[in-house]
Amino acid sequence: MWGRRRRELPDHDEVEAIIDAGVTLAATLSTAERSGLHALVLELLSSKRWEAVGAIELTDEVLVTVAANAALPILELGSGVYRNVASILVQPGTRLSHGVRAGPSVGVVSDEPMPVVGEATPNQGPISVSWAQARADSLHPQEGRNVVIHELAHKIDMADGYTDGTPPLSGTAAKRWHALLADELERAEVRASDAALRPYAFTNPAEFFAVATETFFCTPAVLRDAKPDLYEALGAFYGQDPAARVLPESPGNSPSTSPR
Length: 260
Ligand SMILES: [Zn+2]
Prior knowledge:
Elements: E1 2-3, H1 12-22, H2 31-47, E2 49-52, H3 60-71, E3 87-91, E4 95-97, E5 101-102, E6 109-110, E7 114-116, E8 118-120, E9 127-130, H4 131-139, H5 147-158, H6 171-185, H7 205-218, H8 220-226, H9 228-238
Parallel strand pairs: 2-3, 3-9
Antiparallel strand pairs: 1-2, 4-7, 5-6, 8-9
The structure holds zinc ion.
Residues 150, 154, 207, 210 line the site of zinc ion.
């Protein structure tokens, strides 16, 4: 592993051009949200340690694209929920993970080396993401996946010291979230609405929160229509209503998954 700190920040127009070219969801933001995103990108670039893992150069395109995806969930929350994210590691593609983890199927743990596109480490530990995956996810949100948002959702979950699928919530909101988790994960039957989430969501509460968060930002209308209670709970936590945003039509956006 070798890394470097940012020597200087890219200028305003360069940041905007990289976001325009590579971060499809940014086009759905209001003018105020877009300038908030820009400010958060600069803050994340200067306040986090960015490290290259393996054969990749951390160009402005790589840094700004990853930072902009990291900024989307915290447009209203602010960067405080990322206070335990000291470092963001970027690798060219998948790499082998050697830790014990949940999966490959529900209720199973494995310590077999497994190719992963991203990881989140508890406490002050880093996140790591594959640039190939992050770039594809950033361009094609209609696929419903976003490795950067997924790994940072794990860090938000871990912010209170527990990896339990529960973000920092208190009072009624916390009770409501625990009831929702129980309803979604402690049942044997499959519901039609489950198709709105990748099956990996149902591995455990932590993956449920991470996958639900990805879906909330990437295919929000699908999630809102399938699981309105879950959509509303995530909307209350993140302070956003992404289903109300409209993804511009482009050749890359499949009509079947455009917001209605
Ligand atoms: Zn995960």
